[in-house]
Design goal:
133 residues, 6 helices, elongated, mainly alpha
């Protein structure tokens, strides 16, 4: 029974984390757009007319996010939360060059990473609480 709960937790953490993270990113984009309209400022986002540039920035995010959420859930389920620091460090170092070039991408990276980490951690903590009772 415990194995089934662990598998369900990993599926929920990794698979359901994608719509949660993209939803939070969409919410952040909406809030940013409203704030810039209210203040009359230009948006920092690259123009939507150049989709190729948008695709090149932070490519592979879906797969990286999936693996990140799996690793965070496994770290918590195995009672090794310090591994989360390694996961964040590897992800940040791997993206450093891209993030340095684009402030808008850096902001999306931070928001997406935090949303992803929080979702995976919440799933794993709930599973641990359920398994330990």
């Amino acid at each position: 029974m415990a194995v089934l709960w662990v598998l369900l937790t990993l599926v929920a953490a990794a698979g359901l984390g994608w719509p949660v993270t993209t939803g939070i990113l969409s919410l952040a984009r909406t809030v940013d757009a409203r704030e810039s309209e209210a203040s009359g400022e230009e948006s920092e986002e690259p123009p939507a007319a150049d989709p190729e540039t948008a695709r090149r920035v932070l490519r592979g995010g879906l797969v990286i996010g999936l693996l990140e959420r799996l690793a965070v859930a496994v770290a918590i389920l195995t009672d090794e939360p310090v591994a989360i620091a390694y996961i964040v460090a590897v992800k940040g170092l791997g993206r450093y060059a891209e993030l340095r070039e684009s402030p808008a991408a850096s902001e999306r990276f931070i928001i997406g990473t935090l949303a992803s980490l929080l979702w995976a951690a919440a799933c794993a903590v709930l599973a641990r609480l359920f398994l330990l009772r």
